[in-house]
Amino acid sequence: MANNSNKKLVPEAMTALDKFKYEVASEVGVNLKDGYNGDISARDAGRIGGNMVRKMIQQVENNMK
């Protein structure tokens, strides 16, 4: 079994990040299911993660104005 060493800085934000992930996935046309999604391509996973980061950066920049 893999040992996940990623630690969440704010564990309470996990549900919000999960919801955000599903929102972004539907926007880019990737169908995620509840639970294991290891069968999606690396390209699709990258599109989801990249768009999540882009949106988070955009939100922080907007809040700085």
Largest sheet: none
Put simply, the count of helices is 2
The proportion of residues forming helix, as a percent range, comes to: 55-70%
Question: How many beta-strand elements?
Answer: 0
Contiguous runs where pLDDT drops below 50 for at least 5 residues:
none
Task: Note the run of SSEs as H and E.
Answer: HH
* Percent of residues in beta strands: under 5%
Task: Please state the structural category.
Answer: mainly alpha
Q: In angstroms, what separates the terminal alpha carbons?
A: 45 Å
CA-based shape: globular
Mean pLDDT value = 90
Q: Taking Cα atoms only, what radius of gyration do you get, to the nearest Å? A: 13 Å
Structure description:
This protein is mainly α and 65 residues long. It is built from two helices and no strands. It has helices at 14-28, 42-64. It is globular. The model has no long low-confidence stretch (mean pLDDT 90).
What is the structure about, briefly put?
The chain is mainly alpha-helical and 65 residues long.
Layout of SSEs?
Elements: H1 14-28, H2 42-64
Helix pairs in contact: 1-2
Characteristic key phrases:
65 residues, globular, mainly alpha
